[in-house]
From TrEMBL:
One MF annotation (Gene Ontology) recorded for this entry: ATP binding
Organism: Actinomadura algeriensis
Domain ABC transporter: 8-254
Pfam families, per database record: ABC_tran, BCA_ABC_TP_C
Keywords: ATP-binding, Nucleotide-binding, Transport
Coiled coil stretches, renumbered: none
Entry keyword annotation includes ATP-binding: yes
InterPro entries assigned to the protein according to its UniProt record, in alphabetical order: AAA+_ATPase, ABC_AA/LPS_Transport, ABC_transporter-like_ATP-bd, BCA_ABC_TP_C, P-loop_NTPase
Annotated protein name in UniProt: Branched-chain amino acid transport system ATP-binding protein
Length: 264
């Protein structure tokens, strides 16, 4: 990564909620075409960190750059800048169709303003047709093209997660943040999600993925960062992180520093 601008460069990101520091002084970078895992026990601050990257929360301290530029502070502007995400608790429009959900994701790229939307002029119709074409292509890509006309709320859980990914891709991001994309999936669905993330990287995107499924993380990611009690504990290639005793201790409970010294 040296010499080129990082896709994402977060420095000293801190988020406090009153007396609780949910994220503490985290440095985190993502290079071109990288798939980076972000893991850690429940409550470690993973989702809060994503929220700080995407404008849902304003970090208490720190700075976030996307391709060298400071990210704007509002979620819509972050998406427009090129950072898209999915949510741990799926956020779809349940009473819209699958296709419509993806077309909504495209809106930040449509240049047509309010006036032509009201007038429904030819320019609006052309933009709408283009958005629909892109949305259908993305649904095929995500493996749910056959469901385009279904209501989002009628989709099985795994397909809802894939729909969220398709919708995020509709904003044409350079960086995709996935918050627990395989939660609730069976092993077959998890494997298809792994293949989907690899295909997303092949489209030229960088990806950060939060997951509790360690097999999924260590089999997919180029690099893994571990958060524990808001702080970055370890970062490195999957093989190193997997066997790091600080990581194992964090999952078993309590930071390694808190442990009683071992008997010799
Ligand atoms: N809006 C908020 N107000 C107050 N505290 C919050 C808020 N959001 C998160 N927290 C707290 O911040 C800490 C980190 O939460 P976060 O959801 O980021 O953890 P996580 O690593 O995503 O956990 P999980 O694996 O369970 O999803 C927790 O103690 C949580 O209760
Ligand atoms: Mg979370």
């Amino acid at each position: 990564m040296t010499g080129s601008t990082a896709v994402l460069d977060a420095r000293g990101v801190t988020k406090r909620f009153g007396g609780l520091t949910a994220v503490r002084d985290v440095d985190f970078t993502v290079g071109e075409g990288e798939i980076v895992g972000l893991i850690g026990p429940n409550g470690a601050g993973k989702t809060t960190f994503f929220n700080c990257l995407t404008g849902l929360y304003e970090p208490t301290a720190g700075e976030v750059r996307y391709r060298g530029r400071r990210l704007p502070s509002r979620p819509h502007d972050v998406t427009r800048a090129g950072v898209a995400r999915t949510f741990q608790n799926i956020r779809l429009f349940p009473n819209m169709t699958v296709l419509e959900n993806v077309m909504v994701g495209r809106h930040c790229r449509l240049r047509e303003g309010l006036l032509s939307a009201i007038g429904r002029g030819p320019r609006y119709r052309r933009a709408e047709a283009e958005a629909e074409g892109t949305a259908r292509e993305l649904l095929e890509f995500a493996g749910i093209g056959r469901l385009a006309g279904s209501l989002a709320r009628n989709l099985p859980y795994g397909d809802q997660r894939r729909l969220e990914i398709a919708r995020a891709l509709a904003s044409d991001p350079g960086l995709l943040l996935l918050d627990e994309p395989t939660a609730g999936m069976n092993p077959q669905e998890t494997e298809r999600t792994r293949e989907l993330v690899l295909a997303i990287r092949d489209r030229g995107l960088a990806v950060v993925v939060i997951e509790h499924d360690m097999r999924f993380i260590f089999g997919l990611c180029d690099r893994v960062a571990v958060l524990n009690q808001g702080e970055k504990l370890v970062e490195g290639p999957p093989s190193d992180v997997q066997s790091d005793e600080r990581v194992i201790a964090a999952y078993i409970g309590g930071a390694p520093d808190d442990d009683e010294p071992e008997e010799a």
